[in-house]
Amino acid sequence: MKSRERAAMLLTQAGITPDGSNPWDPQIHNEHLFDRLFAGGTLALGESYMDGWWDVEDLSEFIFRLFRSDSAQQMLRIGMVPQIIKSKLFNLQNRSRARRVGEDVYDIGNDLYEAMLGPSMSYTCGYWKEASNLDQAQEAKLNLICRKLGLKPGDRILDIGCGWGNFLAYAARKYGVSGVGITVSKEQITFAREVVRGLDVEIRFEDYRDAVGKFDHIISIGMFEHVGPKNYRVFMKKVRSLLSDDGLFLLHTIGHSKVSRSLERWFNKYIFPNGHLPSITHVAKATDQRNIFDKSVLTMEDWHNFGADYDKTLMAWYANFEHSWPELKGKYDERFYRMWKYYLLVSAGMFRARYLHLWQIVYSKNGVVGGYTPTR
Predict the structure, then answer these.
(1) If you placed Cys at 352, which of 64, 174, 277, 371 could pair as Cys (CB 3.0 to 4.6 Å)?
(2) Which domain holds residue 60?
(3) Global pTM?
(4) What pLDDT, in 10s, does the model give residues 115-149?
(5) Same domain, 69 and 100
(6) CA distance linking residue 291 with residue 303, whole number of Å
(7) Residues 129, 65 share a domain
(8) Are residues 108 and 52 in the same domain?
(9) What span, in angstroms and rounded, lies between the C-alpha atoms of 57 and 345?
(10) Secondary structure (3-state) at 308
(11) Cβ(312)–Cβ(320) under 8 Å?
(12) Phi, psi for 21 (deg, rounded to 5)
């Protein structure tokens, strides 16, 4: 069976027709596309789009349908095994590689992120429960975290992977806390220090493994995806060592239902090098009691999944990016445009398909006496 016929058969099961008339049907510009897909999987799918071999009117819906169908995904699983084996054999998120995330991902230019993220400068999922736009959703997310931690004036908090400083600035102004933010991005450091100017907040260029001090509460928003399975327990033990006895830790992370899931190959190469999405099993093992002499690292008090909100967040980011492209294209070329569009819309489709999740997990150090009351 020829590659096109084989692909068409698999795609039909997802309601997708090559060169069809629906907005989610891909239009094929190069007939070698299907050979390329069966040879290269998800990496080939993304690179062929960047190369202009195919287009689709509604890319996010195409991906939604693709990732809701196990049969249609068969052509995209090529090449994942070596990547998974590599992540098992090597610590792809050690100290030296961790710095690469800052350099390759967050240091490409604040102008792009300012245009895409809007005033909040929050590069993580918004909370859309009662929000009608991106800014409201991002503020609701920040407030949700503050309420889950029960922040009060005088609390000292640590933000691991503080980004552009938006959470610390919000918490300091709204809840009267002081704090420390750490990041491995030099561009973020410069921006964040301006954001928190005049507040009792310090921004440090620091790896989480080097953090010191004692904090009433700790948060990590959208950074755990860069920690890696060989470092999850190290990360959690570090949090425990920094957390006060009656403090809370909130982990905000993208999650995957499959264990040992490295990022899809295209994302690993172009967007988040050496990224790894944790599973429920990964997170549980990072904090559990290994033997009768080993106390659990942290006690899980609440697990909140609102991954469907990431679809809305990504679509809002894409709308901002598309609107700002005329000003951005003087710095970034057409191939970058197709790459970034692909990243945002494919990610939206994956969350829409519930292939990916967004978790907020609240931990205590020794268990909250009388129980923790969840906040939504």
Answers:
(1) 64
(2) 3-78
(3) 0.91
(4) 999 999 999 999 999 999 999 999 999 999 999 99
(5) no
(6) 24
(7) no
(8) no
(9) 11
(10) helix
(11) no
(12) -100, -5
